[in-house]
Amino acid sequence: MKSVMDWQDLRLFLAVARHEGLTGAAKETGASPATLGRRMTSLETALNTRLFHRGASGYALTQEGGELLAAAQEMETSAAAIEAWKSDRTVSRSIRISGGYWTIRLMTDNLETYWAPSCPWRLEFLADLKKRDIARRQVDIGVRNARPEEPWLAGQKVGTVRFAIYQKTGLGADIERRWIGLVEDAANSPSGRWLQRHVRGDVLITTNEASHALSLARQGAGRVLLPTFVGGAFADLERVGEEVSELETERWLVMHHEERHRPETRQALTAIRSFLSSDPQIRP
Fold this sequence. Notes:
Layout: H1 8-19, H2 22-29, H3 33-47, E1 52-55, E2 58-61, H4 63-90, E3 93-99, H5 101-109, H6 111-114, E4 121-127, E5 141-144, E6 153-161, E7 163-168, E8 179-182, H7 190-198, E9 203-207, H8 210-218, E10 224-227, H9 228-231, E11 237-240, E12 249-256, H10 263-277
Parallel strand pairs: 3-4, 3-5, 8-9
Antiparallel strand pairs: 1-2, 5-12, 6-12, 7-10, 7-11
């Protein structure tokens, strides 16, 4: 039966070759000279090749041993590079989070509430309307508006998002027929579709960025539809009427059911869940 080479023997082989004997190699590797002798014999058997001339003066490489030494040194260099790469990546793991613009703005505005540089995980934010594929690890955590239906995903409910109409404080009904609308991708959001259904004829200014709609409303350019955690944060905005109940949604943290058990992901989930469950507001 053909012997199978133990790759650990190559590391020991390098030490014996460098020291030209067992004593120096034993000091480098921590293995006893007797163990090293047995492992070198095992390696020669696995390779069916004589690697050393053994004598009173030590272990001298044969021609085949010299050829193996050159190849093993390349492997040692590659292994060291991989270990360095691994070390860099394990200093802190990146947690990629996706969500709508206002949700990500909320999280970035209040970062110090749930994260610090000493945390063993880094953060990467993706703000858009795309439903990124958690199963394929496009993101680690998705902040979504419904419980996940896929069996490979897990979800934790962390609150409710409510919407209302806002305008610049003190303008009264003077701008009742002036609205700020949304176009392009933003028009396909629940807020964008509501505006098209209810006030399309009164939209005087449009933008493809919700943040720009907020800025326009604060200047008195028109009324705007906002999450209450956004509109309620600005003293120069006042709410018009009751909350828009048809736009109310749940807020869920969604992740892969296996990924959630990784220590860094679990810590991130705990911190973010605690933050979002506290019903925070963005910061003006």
